[in-house]
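A quick aside before the break. I want you to see a complete sequence-to-structure record at least once, exactly as it would be stored in a machine-readable document. Don't worry about memorizing anything.
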Amino acid sequence: MIHIGPSNTSEDSYIVYVSADGDDTTGATYTESVFENVFEPDYEPDAFATFDAAYDVLRDGYADYILFKRGDTFSGTGYKMTKFGPDGDDRFVFGAYGTTGDSPLIECGANAGIYGWGVKNLYVLGLDFYAHTRDPDNENYSGLEEYDDGGEGVPGDVGFGFHEGDTDEICHNLTVEGCRFRFFNGNQLYNWNSASDMQAEFRRCVILSSYTSYEGSHCQGFFRR
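That is the input. The structure line, written in tokens, reads:
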């Protein structure tokens, strides 16, 4: 398997794993010395069941890792990024683990995939974000809904939305690599006041079947400002 992203953790990194058969009461926090390769652990780690429980034990300002198991499917409730690494060389990582299986599938429905304000020092790697209730070929397709003003649309949100912070802190040292975003109401990356200073990379990603959630409006696969 070809590995993308950071090649190693930091000495003070925390690593947590999330799997479909994990348990939030027994999920463990590991350090960088436990596994030779945190993306391919030597044995089945004690994984959490949900993003929220796993994310809660991690720290802002550290190069911590939260990794979803390949081949598993998860319920995406809109993953808000509020914890970041200390600098561009030691970033917080949200990615995948395992040696077999497809990228972790995150079924987001009408929710956002991943988003945050003032995002910095962050890798997002090898994840498949899927707005499944907006896919007409999916059995859970929600169909058109009528809004309060009489308009119609299929409820949805962005696959990714990374924005300038409330204190004008620009997005920087952000890398999204090897990810897929399907059937969302667009994807956004913008700094309102300082776009020229943005430092963000999107590599080997696929954006498919984006469409608006409201009739008469428009949608971009990727809006960057």
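Two observations worth writing down. The longest helix spans residues 51-56. The longest strand covers residues 92-97. We'll return to this after the break.
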